[in-house]
Amino acid sequence: MPKAIALLSGGLDSQLAICLVKEQGVEIEAVNFQTMFNCCKDDARQVAYNLGVGFTLIRADESYLERVRNPKFGYGRGINPCVDCRSYMFERARAVMEHAGAAFMITGEVVGQRPMSQKMEDFRLIEKDAGLEGLILRPLSAKLLPVTIPEKEGVIDRARLFDIQGRSRARLLELARHYGIENPPNASSGCALTQPQFADKVRDLFEHDPGHDIWKFELLKTGRHFRLSPETKIILGRNENQNAHLEELRFQGLPLLRPHNFAGPAAIFLGGANPEMQAQGASIILRYAQKPLPEICELEFVRGAETAIVTASLPAAESFIEGVRIA
User: Which residues contact 315 (CB under 8 A, 6 or more apart)?
Assistant: First the structure.
């Protein structure tokens, strides 16, 4: 039985691509990517189980961050290197393909669905860059694209593939009904790197922290970020869950500042946390705390096993907030 590797996000398009190829007698191993920017869906493993295919999870590493920092093919509207990102995914999946003895790769990409990586010229560029020319089958749009090697070799019947293009989901939903995919997922909102505020956080981290510490990039998904100095950033939680997450980071040695006699966000410091930084952090916390506030607000500054009380009376001025806020 021929075997193929499928890039599976968990979304509808990749599910349909798997269904179309699986019914032609091809064994499929699904590959899902998780990045520090959380671009991929978390339910992909369950989706693979529902579809009756194997599953491999690949986590992005430092080499992926280098692609984001210095893309060969440029950015989109944010800091999204879409062509580089797809090429990286295919390169990593190619290693799985070779190890598994698979003959080709499939994806749920649709011509013209996404402006930065799903144009015909993008497909050609990505395949060449990833060393997979002729080996990537896109079943939903195959009839609009050059014939692939598995089609030429008779492994795949091109007549049973489709010519879908553009952003309309009508034909995709029709196919979902045909394959019994209940409650098909909505179209993805896209990669976080396309979002202007998130892109600002990524740029700030690239500028001030040249290392590739993956956990720092994962923290970009949490809270409000403020740059107090070139060396110091403070992150405030937006809700109870984020506050709890930031509280846990004190066990990793990060200084924590939290309300003591009022209700408000917790905050951690990345970088220095001298008394001036603590005072600035306290005033920022007061800005986002629940009102009314006591006349003298007390906060606990926790560093390692030591705890000290920091006091503040006035929230940070809006002009100060605007000057230090990243996003």
Answer: 283, 284, 286, 287, 289, 293
Q: Which two tokens stand for residue 105?
A: 């790769």
* pLDDT tens readout for residues 150-209: 999 999 999 999 999 998 999 999 999 999 998 888 776 668 888 889 999 999 999 998
Beta bridge partners of 297: 312
| Dist CA 131 CA 216 (whole Å) | 31
Helix (H, G, I), strand (E, B) or coil at 205: helix
Q: Half-sphere exposure (CA, 13 Å, Cβ side) for 256?
A: 23
Angle ∠(35,39,42) on CA atoms, nearest 5: 85
CATH number of 3-178: 3.40.50.620
Query: Where are the domains positioned within the chain?
Result: 3-178, 222-324
Cβ count within 10 A of residue 86: 26
d(CA 193, CA 117): 14
* 16 three-state secondary structure: helix
**Secondary structure of 142-198 in HEC code, one letter for each residue:** HHHCCCCHHHHCCCCCHHHCCCCECCCCHHHHHHHHHCCCCCCCCCCCCCHHHCHHH
DSSP H/E element including 282: helix 275-288
CB distance 327 to 197 below 8 Å: yes
